Structure prediction request, 457 residues.
Amino acid sequence: MSAGKKRVFIKTYGCQMNVYDSGRMTDALAPSGYVPVADAESADLILLNTCHIREKAAEKVYSELGRLRALKEAGAAEGREVLVGVAGCVAQAEGEEIARRSKVVDLVVGPQSYQRLPEMIARAGKGRAVIGTDFATADKFAALAKPSAPPREARYAAFLTVQEGCDKFCTFCVVPYTRGAEVSRAAPAILDEARRLASEGVREVTLLGQNVNAWTGEGPGGRPWGLGHLLHALAGIPGIDRLRYTTSHPRDMDDALIAAHRDLDALMPYLHLPVQSGSDRILAAMNRRHTRADYLRLVERIRAARPDIAFSGDFITGFPGESDADFADTLAIVEEVGYASSFTFKYSPRPGTPAAAMDQVAEEVKSERLQRLQAAIERHQRAFNAARVGTVAEVLFERRGRHPGQIAGRAPWLQPVQVQGDESLIGSIARVTISRLDANSLHGELAGRDLPVEMIA
Ligand code: SAH
Ligand code: SF4
Ligand code: F3S
Prediction:
């Protein structure tokens, strides 16, 4: 390591937006001489990029800070200063309290203040924690340094944040408080970043936003654009062959976006469309502002546009007031939609959210429902994956496989796929005949070039 270089280690929790932000923090720190390292032990600056979504996620921060105290003391014994910072959604929500409770923390920085990191770090380490948790009005992305080349693990499939924040205020959720109001990045900046990713060999771009389909912008001549228009423009960039977006809210799926699923081959036939509950009563109490029937109609319209599309969802069990009948409605919607995969969570009361003050469901009821829901979802997931066996799927190969001689990538529906194949195929998209599946992955053989990709209805 050359003189003047300092080492930064960032540990990332939570959603993909945090993964993206960690990359941008690394970029923002580069001009101050920080190089990223993969272990906390050798770092001069340790940043925890935290998640506040559920109690367990937030608790991890405090236990991790306990561990970092030892590292900091070991560094001090060698005469080396180790700075510790808390970033992300816990920083935004509980920044002041963390600084008070933990002597280890030198800085606290919320998600809207990362452009201030270099200046904050210059002031840190002088006893009192430096705190930056304002919601900056300026576009954080414009103020942050331009992203560098994607990290090695994201050579061919990269994230690109296009929207941040949330105005929906679901009664269970902290995101509107930790990330602030809905803000969209301007289309030219997004297209520039995508072009740069493509020039670095990226083939697949996943657009990120807490409410990604609430994205709004302007096209050429100041025409109003929604996410559907943006996807059209991105699909026109040479080298970008696959597009995804997450997470979308059912209320923001407009006609142009649904049409994009019909018109754009690059838009992968997989959509994460959280519903949270199948009960109208609970949906209303959650302030989701759509009914079960609205959601099912939407799924039907998207399927009509793109018949091979697969859905994934988010579900919460044991939301306050959830009865057996409400939960039965959730199980029923799982059967009706037939999700290809899903994320399931036990309701976790979050400080300051309206649902935390409602009548709570007993912990064992939440757990028992979670298990039943997971069993139903796993059954559908297995059935979906089993139905791929014997068909041909296009796979973007991203890395070496589990065993020598194997390469691995992802199918259009996000499952990992392993095949015997030459490493020279990494970075390209090839047809694979799916031959079998194990727990989470599909296995297959490279198919001849002339084989048509089967449409899966
Ligand atoms: N913006 C996205 C998701 C944000 S958080 C959306 O609206 O769908 C990701 C998921 O975490 C949510 O979809 C929800 O299922 C879950 N979640 C959020 N708050 C929660 C809480 N208090 N308890 C349990 N799960 C929660
Ligand atoms: Fe949270 Fe609801 Fe906003 Fe999603 S839409 S981030 S669940 S408040
Ligand atoms: Fe967690 Fe914040 Fe993402 S609370 S889920 S890291 S937006």
Notes: Confidence is low (pLDDT under 50) at residues 450-457.
